[in-house]
Predict the structure.
Amino acid sequence: MSAAEDPGATLTKESPATAETLGEQATRRVSGRAWLLLLAGVLVVMVAGALGLRSGAQMAVLILVVVVALVFDYTNGFHDAANAIATAVSTRALTPRVALGMAAAMNMIGALLGVGVAKTISEVITPPTGLHGLTVVAAGVLGAITWNLITWYFGLPSSSSHALIGGVVGAGLASLSEVNWTSVIDKVAVPMVLSPVVGFCLAYLVMVAILWIFRRSNPSRVGRRFRIAQTMSAASLALGHGLQDAQKTMGIIVLALVTTGHSDGKSVPWWVIIACAGALSAGTYAGGWRIMRTLGRKVIEVDPPKGFAAEATASVVLYATAFIWHAPISTTHTITSAIMGSGATKRLSAVRWGVAGNILVAWVLTMPAAAAVAAVVYYVVHFFGA
């Protein structure tokens, strides 16, 4: 395909300064001390939960569960920050810090726009009441946090959504709680399979339309215009990320409140909405440089038209599933498949299928891995807490 047929083809190269900055940030390693602190934090939570169970301090354990859920929300923010802005940064439509600030702000706004997904999450399992139920919820969230951090460390854009659902289901099975399999299949499993396929196909079609419409236009001029358009599409995707992912934590906190009789599960308290929106926004601004590099540079060589097509398509999928079906789909799955779909219009070999394969493995492993970790956490806390 010639440059005239591929608008923005001359713009796939990053400036040395941008590439160096993004690369350095993306490959930054977590120190051994940081991992020890993380492990210590998880152990502290487990010990505190066990002590709370043993002493019957229900309110203290409830507060602990809410804090753990908000920590998950924060890790969700920095784990998935790259989803909305990787392509915009890679094409130099936005600088990394400006992109993160924009994503954080749009995450906050998106989190305030609905609670349908939160209600779906709160209905995945029916845990026991009281302290036992809080143990189940806490174990599920800890399983999700652990898997999030593992995939973040290795730079794999796995799904925080499915990590959370897998963790909750795993803890539910370990505790012999009732699992709402109808909801898990209809609202989680089916959308998990369909959303990447829809994202890939729609992004491919949108990119084909862009190539046809601008086939006789000057590539440099088209690239500049799509850089501006990418600012809007990245903001739209960040809004969809907030709309989807903050609600998942809201659902977990509502589930904890239901187990202790502080909520009937029919509504989401305002303080839960504000707290989850703030935690996700703060985590997003903290940044996800490592995953940003995988999405923005390793899957395909992204130019502004392809970035716009991927982001716009992913946004539509996120909005439709949140507002129409109340399905907690993965922002990560959706944008990654859309990036591959827009890149496949050049040629199938333009997509680095080896990297895509590694991402697919992380997708497949996410729910069972998070479920296994959550089950282990549940058994440990419940055994020592008796």
In short: Confidence is low (pLDDT under 50) at residues 1-30. The first strand starts at residue 125 and ends at 126. DSSP finds 14 helices and two strands in the chain. The beta strands are 125-126, 178-179.
